[in-house]
Amino acid sequence: MSTKQKLDELIGLEGARRFVSASIANPDVSHAVLFYGAVGSGKRTLARILAELYMCTSPTEDGACGQCPACLSFARGNALDILWVIPKKPSNIIKVNAIRRDPPYKEEDPLSIEEFIPSLPIRAKRKVVIMVDTDRMNDSASNAFLKTLEEPPDHVKFILTTTSIGAVSATILSRCVAVKCELPEGVQAQSLIPEATEEWQAVTRGSIGLMKELQQGTPAVRILEFKDRISGTPPLEALKLAEEFKSICDDMQAYRQESMRMATAEALALFAEFMTPEDRLRGWGVPLAEAQRRIIANCHEGIVIDALFTQLLAR
């Protein structure tokens, strides 16, 4: 299938689809693209479509041809000219060795970005690095990646994704074209998840991924219920609320089978996704993003959560 055919199959995502479609005629508009949006908004799907377009050696007016060696190896999942950088369990953090590997080398360590990008592509027109959940880089990785992002080789493209754009380093953001992944209209969402109520569509802003979380009764349900009842709580109750949120993070850790640090960061990301316009007017977004950054940077989860709810209830 061509790029345009794949884009036509997507639901919603009008702005992001326009960007990828425009990239057919002008693929060199930027060396780095960041797709951002809620859980389940289609970021990774768009990243794959754009990556194939960048790699295709025989593009047509409809984008990637789907038939050249680069497209065929991409479809089979064995392309040599693409590098996926994904947070690794149990920490679910992107660490500096994903960006550069310092000796002594371990045989089981995957190829780093700095090792991947210098050589010319083998089959494809360009090499592509896809980084999933860019906000999960720790400080060392973020600083190392920034240096790579500043002056990449001409044959390399970077495609990044995040559900929490506020947690991405501002200097990294400044070097990317940021593309918002809009969510589908309510009618479209309900056709995919029949149980989706108007309330679900409102609080998730149409995110299919978030509605699936609610449908399946994951800890996201507790986070939504918790967020809905804390408005107007006296500041003296901040530490009590913090303890309750920590118990939700315990549930998240058990459900996801990941480290407490990443379970807490994920719970905070969901809390932020469920914010209403009124919550944003109260200024909750900045302290939530900062708390998530601090936890990913290895600050103590309990101390960060205590400070966060003290801040939120003071606003």
Tell me what you see in this structure.
Helix 5 links the parallel strand 2 (82-85) and strand 3. The longest helix has 19 residues, at 238-256. Helix 12 (238-256) crosses helix 16 and helix 15 (285-296) packs antiparallel against helix 16. A five-stranded parallel β-sheet has the order 2-3-4-1-5, with helices on one face. It has two domains: 3-180, Rossmann fold; 217-313, no CATH class. It has helices spanning 3-8, 14-25, 43-55, 69-76, 113-116, 139-150, 170-173, 186-192, 198-204, 208-215, 219-230, 238-256, 260-273, 277-281, 285-296, 301-313, and strands at residues 32-36, 82-85, 127-131, 156-162, 177-180. The radius of gyration is 20 Å and the shape is globular. The chain has 315 residues and is α/β, with parallel strands linked by helices. The chain is built from 16 helices and five strands.
